[in-house]
Each structure stands twice: as C-alpha cells, then as structure tokens.
Design a protein that fits this description.
Number of strands of chain B: 0
Shape of chain A: globular
Radius of gyration of chain A: 18 Å
Shape of chain B: globular
CATH superfamily of chain B: ABC transporter involved in vitamin B12 uptake, BtuC
Number of domains of chain A: 2
Number of domains of chain B: 1
Structural class of chain A: alpha/beta
Radius of gyration of chain B: 20 Å
Order of helices and strands of chain B: HHHHHHHHHHHHHH
Number of helices of chain A: 10
CATH architecture of chain B: Orthogonal Bundle
Distance between the termini of chain A: 39 Å
Number of helices of chain B: 14
Helix content of chain A: 25-40%
CATH architecture of the largest domain in chain A: 3-Layer(aba) Sandwich
Largest sheet of chain B: none
Largest interface: A-B, 30 and 22 residues
Oligomer: heterodimer
Chain lengths: 252, 317
Amino acid sequence: MIEVNNVTKLYNGKTVLDDVSVRIGKGKITSFIGANGAGKSTLLSLISRLIKKDGGDILIEGESVDKCKSSDLAKKISILKQSNHINVRLTIRELVSFGRFPYSQGKLKPEDWEYVDEAIRYMELEEMQHQYLDQLSGGQQQRAFIAMVIAQDTEYVLLDEPLNNLDMKHSVQIMKVLRRMVDELGKTVIIVIHDINFASVYSDDIVALKNGRVVKEGPAAEIIDSPVLKQVYGMDIQIETINDHRICIYFA
Amino acid sequence: MKIWYLWVALVVFSIISLFVGVKDISPLDLFHLTPEQQQVLWVSRLPRLVSIIIAGVSMSIIGLIMQQLTRNKFVSPTTAGTMDSARFGILVAMMLFSNATTLEKILVAFLFALLGTFIFMRILDKVKFKDTIFIPLVGLMFGNIVSSITTFFAYKNDLIQNMSAWLQGDFSTVLKGRYEMLYVSIPLLIIAYLFANRFTIAGMGEEFAVNLGLNYKAVVNIGLVLVAAVSAVVILTVGTIPFLGLVVPNIVTMYQGDYLKKNLAHTALLGAVFVLFCDILGRIIIYPYEISIGLTVGVIGSAIFIFLLLRRKAYAS
C-alpha cells in the first residue's frame, strides 16, 4: 500500500499540493483525475521521488520514501513520464534491457536477459525488438517503454498520461495491457489520465483532485457520479450505463 | 560498417604513417636500419603514430560522451567552450608560474576546462529554447568570449606566440620525451568504458535516470570531469584538433544508434583512422613540407559537419 499523508508542495511560493492525503491499495489500477493544474502529475512525481516535497510524508509499504535509497526504490516503484520526444536512437531491446539496471548495474546476467525477453514477449514486441525507437509509431514506443517497466519488475508502476498523443485504437491497447498487468502479474498501477471514460472503464479506484486538494477518493463507480464530477470539473456531466460501464457524456 | 574494416584501415594507415616523411625509410629497410634511420623511427615516427592514435581515440570518445550527456548531436569540446577554457587555463598557468611545467599546465588547464564545461551545462539548463542547433551556437559564442579574454591577456603579457602553439593541433612537434603525458588519457578512457551504460541512461534524461535508481548528477559530473581531463591533456600535448569529437561520433551513431557501450569501440577506431588519414594527407600534399593536423582535420571535419547539418532532418526522423 502507498500512503500519502498531509503532503504539501510549492512551486516558487505557489501551492500546488495542499495537505493531500491518499491511500492507494495494492493490486489495483488507481487513476488520478482532475482539470489541468489540479496537481495530478505533481503527486505522481512526489510518490516516485522524482521531485522533493515540502511537507508531509509518503510511505510505501510502511517505509518512508525519504528514508529509502534511490537505488532500492528503483526495485519497488517505477515511473514513466510523458516521453513524446525521444531523440535517443536505441533499439527496443536495448531500451528494455535498461529496466534491469537496478538489479545488474549495467552488467546483465542470463537471468536478467530472461526478464528482458519475457517483457518483450508480454508486450508482443518480439518481431520489432531490433528496430530503433525513432522508427516506431507512438503506440509502439509507449509499449516499448511499458516493456522496460515490466522488465524492471517493480510492485508499483506509475504512468503519467500514458495515452498522450495516442489514437483510440492504441489507447485501448495500452489500457488493456495495464489491466492485464494488474490481473495477471499482480502489479499495482497508478496513472494520471485525462480521458475520464478510460478512467471509468479500466480503473478500480479513482482519486479526484482540484486545485491541489483531493475532492474525493474511492471506487471508480462512486467517483463517476454527476455531483462529484460537477465539483471536480465545474460542469454538468450526464452519466449513462452502457454494457455495465459508466460512461460520461460531456461533449454538449 | 563491420568493425574489422576499421582494424584493417588502422593497421594499413599506421604502416603508411611510419614510412612517410622527409627521411627515407622503406618497410624493406626494417631489418637493416642505419643508426640514423633507427633514431628517426624511435624518436619521431613511432611517438608520432602513438600520439595520433591516442589523441584520435580520446577526442572522439569524449565527444561521444558529451553528446550523450547533453542529448545533443552537435555538442563537443569544440562547440561547448571546453577547448577554449582549457587554453585560457594554460595562459593563466603561464602567467602564474613563470616556468610552468607540463604537469602544472595540465592541472590548471583541466580545472579551467572543467569550469568552462560546467558553465556551459548551467547555461544549457537555463535555456528555455532547446533547439538542436541553438545549443552548440551558444557553446561556440561562449567559447569565443573565453577565447577573446585569453587573447587579451596574452597580448598584454606578450604570450601570443606561445598561445598560438596550443591553437593549432600539430603532430610534427611530437618527439620522444614530449608526448608521454598523453598516456594519462588511457586510464580515463577505461573509466569511460566502465561508465558507458550509466552515460546512456543519463542521456535519456534526469527523470528516466532517477526512475532506474541512478545518481544522475554524479554520473553527469563524472562524465564532465573525464571530458575536461582528456581535453586538457590532448590540447597540451598535440594542440586543438577541431571538429574531431563532433564528426566521428556522429558518423558512428548514424549507423549504430546511441547505445554507448556498443559504440565505444567503433568510435575509438574510427577516430584513430580519421586522424591518421588526415595526418598522412597533410604530410604528402606539400611534401617535403607539411600542413598541420589542425588544418586538415578542420577542413575535412567542417565539410562533414556541414553535411551532417544539412541532412539533420533526414537523420532526426
């Protein structure tokens, strides 16, 4: 479990996160939703120690993030940020092999390569594993990065807007992969996501943020609810149930 | 490109290099050398060959590391102010200690090169507009500012003649007893090899590196120390060889990608072959006189650099 207790973060004197407390359960997909500037990405970066907080405490399985060595945390928690401009020419296989860095410090043993092969197979990238990242489409790149995270073999996987710049087909593909990672591999996935319907259909829990504060957290069905969403987004959102999924209609 | 082509080229050019020069030595004489021929070979030709190879290898590899760490294909010791700062360091060393030894000069040059490169990296952090071409332009401007300060003080202290020796790379002055400091760069290159994977990860960006538990700042700093140290050593023993650290790594990454560990051997060999080729060319064009290496590499290198710039679009996509 990840526990965020009364966390505060300031950027140049401006409060971005204000006394935020969240509990994130194991073996689930938890989505962070909210308008631009609500503090979703900041919260994700704080949990994954990419940035330092100004107050409060974050515990991963009871241990404070500040007290953990960064190299040990890399075996527990991984994060993918929006990486839409990759100008490094690496092959998929080379990229995925970096996922083993926390275990091997760059000298991969045969068992490390097994993890790499397994991750590539899991993401169905075998045929293109020797292609360079810059030759791939956005969806394929995203899958390659997720394969790296799978090779990193962490309990917690954090993704910052994994669907950014992807078309519908690839978005669905990525979300299904994340679902499978939770259901089959037992991972805990935390995502920042803009498309509220993807959040509704694929996540177990949702944390709704507004202006640096948590509006409400809970099972997806409780958050995808007109009064709650009105509070989060400041607009009226009609909710219909289609094939047992709660779908938000907010286009008109 | 197969790596053994490069090995063959290295061996062939090395042999040519040993037997080209004013004093006639043919490979056939090898087993019955006159004492004079022996002396030329041991005191001049062989040291020259060794220093060409070490300098070519070192400058290419630190160029590769710099490009990886800054995530920019056009950054190298020549385009980031490292070389100019090192020269400023040499000047300061000469002003401070009237009879500075090579070691003192190297130390001061190293410190200045390091400082200069750090300043460049700081500027890089601050610059919002991170265009691929804009960054090396900033580096060149920064280098020119440092360079003009150097020139100013060199004028005031009557050291211009002295300074110009460090400006133009020149292998003709390499003699036994005067180039051995170059060997210092060999252990530095071994360290570079050991850190290759870390440099590649750091080159993917700070967040990417932190995710993998890498101490990003430490790795970048180690890289910059290597770059500054090698630059200082090379500049003091053979002088500036412009564009080398830019052209060679770019050619290699073009056909090999950015996985540093896999590129180091290719970059090292290509660097040595390229400098050897330019040096031999410089020695035969106006035989029996010679053109300094700074000029031949500069002309051929800048031509390739322009070519790289022009095909940047094709290369980036």
